[in-house]
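Design request, tokens follow.
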């Protein structure tokens, strides 16, 4: 389905939400913790119930938006990592999907593996967004 985007911000938010859904679905099961996080993210980004359902059914219909400044890309990565950690089990499929999304977010290609590995080592329960940004910026 093609979405009538209200604004470029709406388009970016739908793209980001679809990426988070890709992570949640990458291991072929969406846990209750993941659904809870998806609901919070949907509210934050003003995703309608209809959009939520459509994207849950087929996140691939929404392309990854790369026209974000570096700070926005790192913020999106932080939220993607929250989904990876939501059920406290990091699956290989989630990591592979995360790498694809990080590549799609236009991080420097030669830093993708370092960014993903550093992100996976980060305990988001004790690392806030500002600290996460500083850590990722050191890799670039």
């Amino acid at each position: 389905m093609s979405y009538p985007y209200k604004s470029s911000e709406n388009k970016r938010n739908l793209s980001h939400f679809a990426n988070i859904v890709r992570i949640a679905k990458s291991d072929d099961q969406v846990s209750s913790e993941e659904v809870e996080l998806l609901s919070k993210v949907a509210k934050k980004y003003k995703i309608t119930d209809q959009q939520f359902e459509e994207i849950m059914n087929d996140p691939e219909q929404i392309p990854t938006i790369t026209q974000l400044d570096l700070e926005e890309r790192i913020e999106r990565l932080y939220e993607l990592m929250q989904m990876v950690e939501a059920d406290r089990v990091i699956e290989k499929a989630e990591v592979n999907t995360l790498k694809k999304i990080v590549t799609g977010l236009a991080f420097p290609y030669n830093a993708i593996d370092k960014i993903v590995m550093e992100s996976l080592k980060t305990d988001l329960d004790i690392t806030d967004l500002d600290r996460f940004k500083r850590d990722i910026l050191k890799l670039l």
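Comment from the thread starter after seeing the answer: thanks! The CA atoms of residues 27 and 91 lie 7 Å apart.
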